[in-house]
TrEMBL record:
It comes from the Eukaryota. This is 6,7-dimethyl-8-ribityllumazine synthase. Catalyzes the formation of 6,7-dimethyl-8-ribityllumazine by condensation of 5-amino-6-(D-ribitylamino)uracil with 3,4-dihydroxy-2-butanone 4-phosphate. This is the penultimate step in the biosynthesis of riboflavin. Its EC number is 2.5.1.78. It catalyses: (2S)-2-hydroxy-3-oxobutyl phosphate + 5-amino-6-(D-ribitylamino)uracil = 6,7-dimethyl-8-(1-D-ribityl)lumazine + phosphate + 2 H2O + H(+). Keywords: Riboflavin biosynthesis, Transferase. Belongs to the DMRL synthase family. InterPro entries: LS (IPR034964), LS/RS (IPR002180), LS/RS_sf (IPR036467). GO terms for molecular function: 6,7-dimethyl-8-ribityllumazine synthase activity. The lineage of its organism: Eukaryota, Viridiplantae, Streptophyta, Embryophyta, Tracheophyta. One of its GO terms (biological process) is riboflavin biosynthetic process. It comes from Citrus sinensis (Sweet orange). Oligomer forming an icosahedral capsid.
Length: 218
């Protein structure tokens, strides 16, 4: 009986079972005893007939991989939501982000910066910007630095969940570029100091996600 299965891509590293991939690339020399005899057709088709154990996934030329580019940024529009609290730090993060956008040819006229009082306020503004339909991605920048009380936890957790919710609710990528640090030294080290600039890093993520959505997920 000729099996005419569409590309079924499975593989399992399970030592206990024996498998064989037929008519296609098999990443590992394996052999499979089949529960029935069959002759498999199809150029480049990779067939694995499962026998009892669960199989995992193997890529073949049939699998598409979608990713965003760091080039092809013409037409991408970005909103940056920046917390003024700890402005000494957030301004440095913003500078890093804007330098990155410039380096990757994002046009200045395609960037809007919106200032909010603190990181707690970022989420609601990010969601509004996402829902506006004007932007391909929203980059959120803040610096939450621990003080003497547990207020830090409330602000840091709220900022993170706010940005996450903004992206999920608006359908526009909202990137979390908010530092959450135990002290100001940690924050400054991540705003252009010895640990780099997390604003610049978040801008790269914003470009890739904007590109992914623009070119593949619309
Ligand atoms: N302590 C920090 C704050 N606190 C302010 C809050 O973000 C918020 O503005 C206030 O609770 C009113 O809603 N914000 C930061 O961004 N970083 C901090 O370290
Ligand atoms: C993250 C904060 O809210 C924190 O900086 C506030 O400082 P404190 O906990 O000493 O009131």
């Amino acid at each position: 009986m000729a099996l005419n299965l569409k590309t079924t891509i499975h593989h399992s590293p399970l030592a206990s079972s024996s498998r064989q991939f037929i008519n296609g690339f098999s990443p590992k020399p394996t052999s499979m005893s089949f529960s029935r005899s069959s002759s498999l057709k199809g150029f480049g088709t990779q067939i694995a007939i499962e026998r009892k154990e669960r199989l995992s996934f193997v890529q073949t030329e049939a699998v598409r991989h979608l990713t965003g580019f760091l080039t092809k940024n013409e037409g991408l529009r970005f909103a940056l939501v920046v917390a003024r609290f700890n402005e000494l730090v957030t301004k440095l993060l913003l500078e890093g982000a804007l330098e990155t956008f410039k380096k990757y040819s994002v046009k200045e006229e395609n960037i809007d910066v919106v200032w909010v009082p603190g990181s707690f306020e970022i989420g609601v503004v990010a969601q509004q910007l996402g829902k506006s339909g004007k932007y391909t991605a929203v980059l959120c920048i803040g610096a939450v630095v621990r003080g003497d009380t547990t207020h830090y936890d409330a602000v840091a957790n709220s900022a993170a969940s706010g940005v996450l919710s903004a992206g999920v609710n608006s359908g526009v990528p909202c990137i979390f570029g908010v530092l959450t640090c135990d002290n100001m030294d940690q924050a400054l080290n991540r705003a252009g100091g010895k640990s780099g600039n997390k604003g610049a890093e978040a801008a790269l993520t914003a470009i890739e996600m904007a590109s992914l959505f623009e070119h593949h997920l619309k």
